TrEMBL record:
It catalyses: L-tyrosyl-[protein] + UTP = O-(5'-uridylyl)-L-tyrosyl-[protein] + diphosphate; L-threonyl-[protein] + ATP = 3-O-(5'-adenylyl)-L-threonyl-[protein] + diphosphate; L-tyrosyl-[protein] + ATP = O-(5'-adenylyl)-L-tyrosyl-[protein] + diphosphate; L-seryl-[protein] + ATP = 3-O-(5'-adenylyl)-L-seryl-[protein] + diphosphate. Nucleotidyltransferase involved in the post-translational modification of proteins. It can catalyze the addition of adenosine monophosphate (AMP) or uridine monophosphate (UMP) to a protein, resulting in modifications known as AMPylation and UMPylation. Keywords: ATP-binding, Magnesium, Manganese, Metal-binding, Nucleotide-binding, Nucleotidyltransferase, Transferase. It comes from Pseudomonas fluorescens. Its cofactor is Mg(2+); Mn(2+). InterPro entries: SelO (IPR003846). This is Protein nucleotidyltransferase YdiU. The active site is at 252 (proton acceptor). ATP binds at residues 90, 92-93, 113, 125-126, 176, 183, 262.
Amino acid sequence: MKALDELTFDNRFARLGDTFSVHVLPEPIDNPRLVVASPAAMTLLDLDPAEAQTPAFAELFSGHKLWADAVPRAMVYSGHQFGSYNPQLGDGRGLLLGEVYNQAGEHWDLHLKGAGQTPFSRMGDGRAVLRSSIREFLASEALHALNIPTTRALCVIGSDTPVWREKQERAAMVLRLSPSHVRFGHFEYFYYTKRPEKQKELGDYLLAMHFPECLEQPEPYLAMFREIVERNAELIAKWQAYGFCHGVMNTDNMSILGITFDYGPFAFLDDFDAHFICNHSDDQGRYSFSNQVPIGQWNLSALAQALTPFISVEALRETLGLYLPLYQAHYLDLMRRRLGFTTAEEDDQKLLEQLLQLMQNSGVDYSLFFRRLGEELPEQALARLRDDFVDIKGFDAWGERYVARVAREGEVDQQQRRARMHAVNPLYILRNYLAQKAIDAAEGGDYSEVRRLHAVLSNPFEEQPGMQSYAERPPEWGKHLEISCSS
């Protein structure tokens, strides 16, 4: 394991030059201090987790100090925000400090969010607040533990620096890791500013660094686009299967690598509601839970438009046509496993849809239902779960079909079935009220709850002694928290 001063930098994106990013130094925050760190994320850089307790750790990840080989850059891009094109966005409060490669040869961007103003800040102050930094940290590491592709979060650094949002808060910084921070909006920026040579430079860079297998194909750009479509279909299938709502699926928030990116007003479903809107600012429900699937396709279409200088429209349309079938295949496969099935039957989709409609009508807790379904033999589990449903007759009828479906799987050892289902059905998820309790404590100077919640969420599938309170249904006040883009 390495110490902080032993990290090895190779700043490949910075070498693309000033057309793609500009040099900006981070603005330090007052009295920086560690709020929480992820030992698992630190190991991606071969960092010794004990380094998080050193004074240098808080100084480096709050902008007070820089590594000699770090080259902080603010990236430029554009994007469609709520369906409308914004010609220039960019890193308004974040900086790509540099790229570190580990002993396994993996490259990781060190991206500091809340680092101060950049040329792309527009009217913003370039800061992040403690609550949003904690939420992004917890979500990044929680989704990773659920096997959902995501950026990682190394740490949150708190401060005494005042920041004004709806009220006065304190500034914080979160350090996130990703193999790349290139977004759909990067291609859109150079497409709409009519600089195809820069688009090609970016595309060639991505092919070489992140899609080298596509270089072996007759049309590398088309092969890369197909890979992006496939990755996003699988990503959104996992979001839907686990009840995750992103909240702001603008094209500038979509990763070219198909990973969950730019956490804002996200939420996991408590009671199942296909029409749930997690973003208080989303008046029209554009990014509601059920709309995430078509919006994923819409965003891929926007990327396809930006790639028309390099790929024929016909080939782009054909590739986009893969998205929905791929999504449906990934989603149904995961939901079969969540229901305890090991085989596929033609009517499984219908059985699932009937269940979700019953859950919708009764406000059934989405995550706990699947967890409890695997606790006991199907008949016993259903007998315990039926009281959660208003339409008991309808649920009983569904239960009969479910028991018959399980029976067709053949003889199954319940202990094995339970282990198999629990391996895909989490006991602990990042509910908004749990995050809010941790934030409230942290804003009062107590970081123990953030650290405890992070530890619980890092192992979501296994029951942890003494942590039953993290697996309960939320109180009524916890189901209706308003989360905005500033969160």
